[in-house]
Amino acid sequence: MGDEKSLSVMGAGRDRDRELLIPVPDSVDRHLDDDGPSSASASSSHHHPGRETFYKVVRSWASKKFMTGCVILLPIAITFYVTWWFIHFVDGFFSPIYAQLGIDIFGLGFVTSITFIFLVGVFMSSWLGASVLSLGEWFIKRMPFIRHIYNASKQISAAISPDQNTRAFKEVAIIRHPRIGEYAFGFITSSLTLQSYSGDEELCCVYVPTNHLYIGDIFLVNAKDIIRPNLSVREGIEIVVSGGMSMPQMLSTLDLRTTQLDRIRPV
Questions:
Q1: d(CA 227, CA 187)
Q2: Please, is 226 exposed, middle or buried when counting C-beta atoms within 10 Å of its C-beta (0-12, 13-18, 19+)?
């Protein structure tokens, strides 16, 4: 028994010596490990609230200015890119001919192409040009597959034709569709007279695009129920292509009598 007591006393003494040799006790270390991160974060957030607010303000200001720059530069970049691509595309029609002749001037093919298109327009406006065009269309319409491509492309180009007689879209129209209080934006393509027992009724064929400009629905609407805004056909096409983003903030309607007089009045 005495030996066991002496051994226990010696063991306790050794433990005390070890604790004295360690500069930081284990219990303190555990306490710091458990409470250290939370206390450090609490103290940092307590001592530096203004710095975090400043960083948030700077990040918000920088992101807003960056998005503003993107909004301003994106349409400019797209415009320059499309214009540059169009110049290279049109210049490629006649630039190989000048390259064979040893003439290497950038833009010369573009100027030649624009001049050629203008001369074609002048020639096709004459009686001889119209006869040549009708003869060429007669040959194209005899081809099985090519005639469908030509007819579709001709209808698309006729929509923006400056000629009032051959233009597919006569006027811009606003109709009440699909329910009361809602309006649809469309184009008048033709007019007709509906004969019934109650009398004759003048109708207009209104084309309402549903998917961009090439796919849409056709409605027969009474001429009196059509709202004619003060928009040209090209402005109407721009509104449809842009998804309504180029719509003016205010529209005014045109009088039906005024539009009829403009049609009858010689140019």
A1: 11
A2: buried
